[in-house]
Amino acid sequence: MDEINVTAEVLSIEQFNLLEHDWNTLFAKSEQRFFLSWNWMGSWLSILPSQSRAMVVKAVVNNEIVGLAVFCHSNVRRHGFITSSQWHMHRAGVAELDQMWIEYNDVLCAKENQLAVRDAIIKYAINYFDFDELAVSMATSSRLSTKSSIPSHSFWVDSTAHPAFKINLSKPYKPSKNLHRQITKTEELLASNGGLSWSITSSQEEVFNILDLGKHWHQEKWRETPTPSGFDNAVFESFHHRLIEHNNDENKVVVVALSHQNKLIGFNYLLTDKHSVYFYLSSFMPVNDNRIKIGYFLHNKCIEWATEHNYQYYDFLAGESSYKQRFSDERYCLFDNILQKKKLSFYAERMLSKIKHKLVRK
């Protein structure tokens, strides 16, 4: 491969349309996962506050763009005494702005020479940005870059794995006997009162209507937990409004809705690209009868639809929920990778973490 030239420039309003063109052109040559489509990236960039520091890093070979990534800066304080200047790839580093939660995070690059292009961009970021921590969250690889790109005397490299699950639809899908029994029983109990129906749509108007009717169940379920519903976050809602508006033939939001007696009782919110259907979130009416598994029934319908439309995978994404494991036949991992400067405050934080871990184990 010829020499890779890497540059960085501030993402401005004037540059936004040009970036969209360059991004879509390169995306067409990539493995084309939804989370690196302009649907996702453009929607995310559009909700960043005007004061955000966002940099576009570009890799070029022979005047052709072969790699793109966007890094955002944030300042954080942990434990009351540790401060850190951070740069995040395809995240803002602020909880409110990151609740939409990118997965399959990576440098956008063509299928050819992915490793070399990724290394070039990460190496450039290490040398160009002034940082305490450089983070690539929910990445496809635990390998941030080649070891030669990261001076070990100056940095620690940490990688945390997040288990994820999916179904390979190239093989006949067959749920376990117990799972099949629960799905069948759910259908019998709901249909016994008549009027059970399900529908699937990517129409903007219909998707917005379903979300408005059913999101309150999601809000009520998660409101008093450490991870409240994104529907309680105006930034999250704005992002998804834009995401739905970006729907196109190959990369789009699809909603599967379940109704009983003409009233919505639940929905699954899906993301789709050329190869996969990604389960993003669900919201459904709580029921007192523990024999009724609305979530199971919805997933079964989604999997049937994905199979009929020749998708290769139904992907539950990261998270160790038991239902994901019950449905899935493949397990994989996504990784939080952090490059951390070797400084005294971080060393103290690491020592305290080790002591705490030992005490918990005892």
TrEMBL record:
Which residues does the UniProt record annotate as the domain BioF2-like acetyltransferase? 179-325
Q: Which Pfam families match?
A: Acetyltransf_6 (PF13480)
What organism is this sequence from? Psychrosphaera ytuae
**Alphabetical list of InterPro entries matching this protein:** Acyl_CoA_acyltransferase, BioF2-like_GNAT_dom
State the protein's name. Answer: GNAT family N-acetyltransferase
